[in-house]
Amino acid sequence: MSGARRDGPRDAEALARGYTPAVRRMELAGIAGYSALVIWLSVKLWPHAWASPWWALTAVLLAYLGADFASGLVHWAADTWGSPDLPIIGPALLRPFREHHVDQLAITRHDFVETNGNNCLGSIPTLAIAVWVAPDAEGGGSFFLSAFLLALVIWVLLTNQFHKWAHLPEPKGAVALLQKLHLILPPGHHALHHTRPYNNHYCITVGWLNWPLGWTRFFPVLEWCITATTRALPRRDDLGASAAVEVMNTTQPPPASHPTPLPARRP
Ligand SMILES: [Zn+2]
Ligand SMILES: [Zn+2]
Questions:
Q1: Ligand nearest the Cα atom of residue 235
Q2: 78 in a structural domain
Q3: pLDDT for residue 262
Q4: 79 CA → ligand 1 middle, Å
Q5: What b/e readout covers 31-50, taking b as 16+ CB neighbours within 10 angstroms?
Q6: How many whole angstroms from 41 Cα to the centroid of ligand 2?
């Protein structure tokens, strides 16, 4: 479906049909590559972790914050720019974000591959760097950096799981407890992202960074810079042109820099 003449959210069923066998095959390949690299790296780093447990623990905890930030940045970029009609990145990365906004519960029906495949695929370049900087027999490389990057991609993998749990109608047991303690993404906190104007609370691993990023207006400032240089309308594909202009004019800093709405561009 083309977004050229649409002025409103996309159709949920059409977006769900966009999950094609080709995308699924790509995700399966991503999971296979991700698993092989994570296992290889874990075996390689294990003796170093035993020798330097505090460095290992620090890397794992810092990586949790890193994953929260990465989840926010990727989520913001995918929600705000581009369209599922773009080649490769559209159906593989952007379509699930559009589907999630028009059918929040779809994620709770997705199996392991559909939930985690694209995160595995997107983590492979980071894993390649982690392998490259891993400590070697000659004393080169960096255990801390490699362990940080390995922990980062593992937290990134868990991010979609935490996000899925935040949409469960009735989370139970340990999941409910971790959400209540805000050690993983709590449903009430994440619900703010799905509330008008739909342009905040992008971090979905645990959501801790939503406060400093919101307080510093990190994403509105970034959007303002991109719109000022490219004239691209944020969230045009996600909300439709009219709603996207409305959101931009009420939230982008400084408000006076957009005295008139950007015209809805037609190709
Ligand atoms: Zn979103
Ligand atoms: Zn959500």
A1: 1
A2: yes
A3: 52
A4: 5
A5: bebbeebbeebeebbeebbe
A6: 31
Which residues fall within 8 angstroms of residue 18, CB to CB, at 6 or more apart?
Answer: 84, 91, 95, 99
Each residue of 151-184: pLDDT tens digit?
A: 999 999 999 999 999 999 999 999 999 999 999 9
Assess if residue 266 is contained within a domain.
no
Distance 65 CA to ligand 1 centre (A): 19
Task: Give the mean model confidence (pLDDT) for residues 238-256.
Answer: 76
Q: Is residue 76 part of a domain?
A: yes
What pLDDT, in 10s, does the model give residues 108-143? 988 999 899 989 999 999 999 999 999 988 878 899
Q: In angstroms, what is the span from residue 6 Cα to ligand 2's centroid?
A: 23
- What ligand is nearest to the CA atom of residue 185? 2
**Within a domain: 267:** no
- Asked if 49 contacts 41 with a C-beta cutoff of 8 angstroms, the reply is no
Total count of domains within the chain: 1
Ligand number with the minimum distance to the CA of 79: 1
pTM: 0.86
| Cα 130 to averaged position of ligand 1 atoms, centre (Å) | 29
| Structural domain containing residue 136 | 12-257
